């Protein structure tokens, strides 16, 4: 038996190889953005079949620890951003806290008749108009999410493209002096469609996290419904739970 693997433990070989690769990444022997040894090299190193190695590598690719480049090899992915599910923060604040620079690419800034579901969620009348703002949120020059924000026009009559290039939360709180008090957020897993994949720079059908947030000002006045698509290979959401 190869000394790198343990025989007397009830852990499958591919799992042990996964753990080995993760440890090498943690110890920075395999560096972010660099290629890991080929399947052939790894199968020789562990003295196992290439199928076993492939299983381990595929699992780590699916978990976002590694990524494959067609015709080249398998590389170490950047560590995912850990986003706490506590505290109602904005993208700009989240990135700043991590020492990253945030920016947005504005895809759309329109005033439209609210779609039915949005109208209901924002407690609007039949004629209620909303801003429909679509932004790609970028951190350190990399696209992280596509966000579509709906906000009642009558609540923010002077909103401009310039403002939404920056931080909407900053504008609402600091410039308008309105307090953002709470939100409800739903997270679901999905596969990226063609358009999302292109904007997020991932392959079509890659896993993404779809998040819908409805946020309120004081006195439970809803002020935004935001539908976003986050790269599942770049983000994980963390929550502490008490019993
Ligand atoms: C976050 C929020 C989004 C909010 C935005 C404001 C999620 C899923 N979404 O991206 O609801 O509108 O921040 O960001 O957390 P800004 O102040 O930088 O414009």
Automatic annotation (TrEMBL):
Q: Which GO terms fall under molecular function for this chain's record?
A: DNA binding; DNA-binding transcription factor activity
Q: Show where the HTH gntR-type domain sits.
A: 11-79
> Which keywords appear in this protein's UniProt record, sorted alphabetically?
DNA-binding, Transcription, Transcription regulation
Q: What is this protein called?
A: GntR family transcriptional regulator
Q: Which organism is it from?
A: Halobacillus aidingensis
Q: Which InterPro entries match?
A: Bact_HTH_transcr_reg, Chorismate_lyase_/UTRA_dom_sf, Tscrpt_reg_HTH_GntR, UTRA, WH-like_DNA-bd_sf, WH_DNA-bd_sf
Record-level GO BP terms: negative regulation of DNA-templated transcription
Q: Which SMART domains match?
A: HTH_GNTR, UTRA
Span-the-membrane segments of this chain are none
- Taken from the record, one Pfam family name reads UTRA
Is the keyword Transcription in the record? yes
Determine if Nucleotidyltransferase is one of this entry's keywords: no
Looking up Gene3D superfamilies in the UniProt record yields: Chorismate lyase-like, Winged helix-like DNA-binding domain superfamily/Winged helix DNA-binding domain
